[in-house]
Amino acid sequence: MKKIAILGAAESGIGTAILAQKQGWDVFVSDMGTIKEKYKQQLDSHGILWEEGGHTEERILGADTVVKSPGIPDTAPMVQKLIAQGTPILSELEFAKSYSRGKTICITGSNGKTTTTSLIYYIMEKWGVDVGLAGNIGRSFALQVAEGDHDWYVLEISSFQLDNMFQFRADVAVLMNITPDHLDRYEFEMQHYTDSKMRIIQNQTQEDAFVYWKQDEHIDEELEKRAKGYAPSPTPSSRPAQAGHPTLMPFEDADFEKLNLTFSQMGQHNKRNALAAYMATSHIGVPDELIRQCLKDFPGVEHRLERVEEKDGVLYINDSKATNVDACYVALQAMERPTILIVGGKDKGNDYSVLNDLIREKCAGLVYLGADNQKLHQAFDGLGLPVQDTHSMKDCVEACIRMAKTGDAVLLSPCCASFDLFKNMEDRGEQFKTLVRAHNKK
What we know:
This protein has 18 helices and 17 strands. It has 442 residues and is of the alpha/beta class.
């Protein structure tokens, strides 16, 4: 019996374990941290062996294949040992796809992928096909395959997941953009990160489609390099990406007006999200009239330019999902009121200077929210705006309330990861919403 070890016992790891057991693997799950009670119950109900608080090397190094959580970096000691002995290390999506009959629409990009993924899924559901939502959003892809599989999947895919995908082939690949993000995981080399994102087209043929934003500064250049035989260097736990030769489906900003589209969400970046969804779903045969109606009706994504509420003439907006500089940039572009901007968190090697002109134009004040705000002070204090330094969401919201005037907006668009003060970006956004609503009830 083939042995599989799964590193990380959260949504993707549990789904992988259940699918692997169903497919006849000898399964072992290991997590350096504490496994949530609901996941322990799932493993126990299937009779799957697990451990927490450390790794049993013998069990993991003796596996034929390892599937690791995308959050575990190549520098982790156990991953280093697996790399040294040549054990295949896969992502959940790679493993699950090998057992699925479903066709896939796969979305990646530094920004916009969650909204685009959710919108495409919304359109597919309204079309009435058998479709699952998975990847970096929704329920585990592997678990859905194990429990019955679907005809279609809409998958949001991060660069970390792409790094350990090799045979995977997307029927429709969508790349929203490539802007600096997660560079701390890519040796602070932009090309390494770009290579990771371009893996979305690996193994594609002319029968498959590649939808992308043509005005991105990297994508056309990367396609040209690959057409000439460029072979990117793999990350330590990955193998080289296989060349892809899909049918290219580029779009430009002006296409939104040319196609006479209407979208329910604010901002130029959301027009791009709508265009990507329109092109991807049109390509597979969704009726044009249905797509257009879905664009008008789409309710939006939680934590992405989410209107919380308005009180005393101040509008509060939760954009906690903006975990990099470019995401904050497009959020500020969409603002139509003087804005109190909340920024801060775990820095990922960000260059904040690209925000300066936009902050001068759009912002009435800045509130820093992080365990260590020194880099933010260095970046923004010289802009001449009112600044508040805070280290908890409670203090942050109170500072915003004091600073904001009638007609202003308060925008949580942090530019940074959330792990310095919060469990995750959802926790950050939920705390913001709860405190804003509690204040507004007074």
